[in-house]
C-alpha cells in the first residue's frame, strides 16, 4: 500500500524527460509564437505538441477511462478545468513559455498526480539545465538522485525571495505586485529573484536556494508538481492571506518554514483572480 502510485511516478519521470528532449530540440529551430489571453501570454506549437505527447503516453500506459487530465493547453482551448476525486494528472508541458521563446534558459515540464484531490507526486524537469526534480508523498524530494531539503534560515533579513509578475498587466494589478515587491525589498531581504517558471521557482525553494516563492495569478498546472516537491523537502504551502493553501485558487506562498512565510504574507497586497475551477 505504501508503494502506491510508484509505477505512475516512475513513468511520469520518463515522460517528463522525453518531453524535455522535445522542447530542447524545438528550441534549436525557428519558434512560431502566438498569443492566448493577451499580447504577453505566449504560446507556441511546442506547448501544444508536448502536451499531446505527454497526455497521449499517459493514456496509453494507464488507460483513458479511469484517469483524468488537466493540461494547460487543453484548458486554454476550452476544456473545463474540473478537479474531481478521480486519479488526475495536472500538466504544464512548457512552464516558462516566454523564456523558451527568448532562449532564456529556464524552461520546465511539470507533471503532477492527485487522487481524491490530494497530490500524490510531482515531477519537474528543468530541461535546459537538465535537472530532474521529483517527489512522492512520504518519500522525500530529489534533484536527480540527490535528496533535497529547504533552507533552515528563519531570519527574513538573510533570505532570498522569489516572485513573478505574470501576464496580467492591468494597472491596478501591476501596481499591487510592485508595491508588494518594494515592501519586501525594504524589509530588507538579501534579494528578490524570479526564474520565469513557477515550477522551477518552487524547486529552488525545495533545494534551499531561496527561502520563499509567492505569486497571485499562477495556475494549478504551474505549481501542482512543485507543491509536492516543496512539501517533501520540508517546506510549507499557504494561501497569500495566511490561510490554507488551495490548489485551484491561483494564490500561493511556498516557503522553507512558517516564520518566513508569515513575514512575507504581512507584505502581500492581495488582488482578485478568477479561480481555475470557476464555472465560466
Ligand atoms: O505560461 P507558462 O509559461 O506555462 O507559466 C508561467 C505563467 O504564465 C506566469 O504567469 C508565471 O509568472 C510564470 O512563473 C509561469 O510559470
Ligand atoms: Mg506554466
From TrEMBL:
GO terms for molecular function: inositol monophosphate 1-phosphatase activity; metal ion binding. Keywords: Cytoplasm, Hydrolase, Lithium, Magnesium, Metal-binding. It catalyses: 1D-myo-inositol 4-phosphate + H2O = myo-inositol + phosphate; adenosine 2'-phosphate + H2O = adenosine + phosphate; alpha-D-galactose 1-phosphate + H2O = D-galactose + phosphate; 1D-myo-inositol 6-phosphate + H2O = myo-inositol + phosphate. GO terms for biological process: inositol biosynthetic process; phosphatidylinositol phosphate biosynthetic process; signal transduction. GO terms for cellular component: cytoplasm. Its cofactor is Mg(2+). Its EC number is 3.1.3.25. Its main location: cytoplasm. Pathway: Polyol metabolism; myo-inositol biosynthesis; myo-inositol from D-glucose 6-phosphate: step 2/2. Homodimer. Belongs to the inositol monophosphatase superfamily. This is Inositol-1-monophosphatase. It comes from Cottoperca gobio.
